[in-house]
C-alpha cells in the first residue's frame, strides 16, 4: 500500500511512524521546573547523534495549540538535564510518570524514585536507573507544524558526565544483557531484549572475495 503523508492526518502519520521505526530506545529525562520541582518524563523519539563531543537528541511533541511540554520548557529555561536509560526493573514506574501530573508536582517522587545529586549539572539523577547521563543543552530546534505552532521541540544535549552501574561495565563496554534495556513499540507496547546475533562488518576486499565464484 502507498500513503501520501500530505493527505493523511497528523494522527495517521504518527501511527505509521511509530509502527515502522522499531524498536525505539527511551530517554527518561529529569529537568528542573521554575519552582525547583524535579520533572521526570519518558521520550521514545531519542538517539545518539554525535560522539565528539557525545551528543544525545530527543524530541518533545508539543501539546495542542503548540504548547511546549514541561520538559522542553524546563530545559530551555535551565539549560541542564539528565537522561536515564530505561530497563526492565524500572519500566513500570517510568510508565507511571507519563501520567499528566500538574506542572508543580514532581512525578519521580510520586511514583517512588529516589534522587541522587549530580556531579556536574544541578539537576538530580534518579538512583534506581542503571545508566544516567548528565547533559547540558547544546542546541534546540522547533520542528514541523507552523512558525507560530511548531509540532515538536528537538533538544540536543552534550553529555558532561556518565554514571553506569559497576556491574554493567566490562573493559569499557556496557553489558547489554545485564542492563536489560526496554524499548517502545507502537501504542502501549514495550519490548524486551530478544535473541541477539552478530554480523561482522566486511572490508571491501572481503566482500569481493566472497562474491567471486568458487
Written description of the protein model:
This is NADH-FMN oxidoreductase RutF, flavin reductase (DIM6/NTAB) family. InterPro entries: Flavin_Rdtase-like_dom, Split_barrel_FMN-bd. GO terms for molecular function: FMN binding; oxidoreductase activity, acting on the CH-NH group of donors, NAD or NADP as acceptor. This protein has 214 residues and is α+β, with helices and mostly antiparallel strands. The protein has one domain (5-211): Electron Transport, Fmn-binding Protein, Chain A (Pnp Oxidase, Chain A). It is built from six helices and 14 strands. It has helices at 10-20, 70-78, 91-96, 107-111, 176-179, 204-211, and strands spanning 24-25, 27-32, 38-43, 46-51, 54-61, 80-85, 115-116, 125-126, 131-143, 152-164, 169-170, 173-174, 183-184, 190-191. A seven-stranded antiparallel β-sheet has the order 3-2-6-9-10-5-4, with helices on one face. The protein has a three-stranded antiparallel β-sheet with strand order 1-13-14, with no helix packed on it. The N and C termini lie far apart (41 Å).
Amino acid at each position: 500500500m502507498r500513503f501520501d503523508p500530505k493527505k493523511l492526518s497528523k494522527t495517521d502519520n504518527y501511527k505509521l511512524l511509530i509502527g515502522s521505526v522499531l524498536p525505539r530506545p527511551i530517554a527518561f529525562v529529569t529537568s528542573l521546573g521554575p519552582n525547583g520541582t524535579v520533572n521526570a518524563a519518558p521520550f521514545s523519539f531519542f538517539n545518539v547523534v554525535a560522539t565528539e563531543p557525545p551528543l544525545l537528541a530527543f524530541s518533545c511533541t508539543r501539546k495542542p495549540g503548540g504548547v511546549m511540554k514541561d520538559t522542553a520548557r524546563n530545559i530551555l529555561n535551565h539549560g541542564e538535564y539528565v537522561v536515564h536509560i530505561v530497563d526492565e526493573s524500572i519500566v513500570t514506574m517510568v510508565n507511571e510518570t507519563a501520567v499528566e501530573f500538574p506542572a508543580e508536582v514532581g512525578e519521580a517522587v510520586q511514583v517512588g524514585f529516589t534522587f541522587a545529586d549530580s556531579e556536574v549539572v544541578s539537576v538530580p539523577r534518579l538512583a534506581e536507573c542503571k545508566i544516567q547521563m548528565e547533559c547540558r543543552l547544546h542546541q534546540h530546534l522547533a520542528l514541523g507544524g507552523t512558525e507560530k505552532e511548531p509540532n515538536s521541540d528537538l533538544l540536543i544535549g552534550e553529555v558532561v558526565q556518565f554514571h553506569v552501574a559497576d556491574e554493567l561495565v566490562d573493559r569499557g563496554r556496557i553489558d547489554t544483557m545485564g542492563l536489560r534495556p526496554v524499548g517502545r513499540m507502537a501504542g502501549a507496547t514495550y519490548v524486551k531484549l530478544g535473541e541477539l546475533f552478530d554480523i561482522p562488518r566486511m572490508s571491501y576486499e572481503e566482500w569481493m572475495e566472497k562474491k567471486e565464484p568458487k
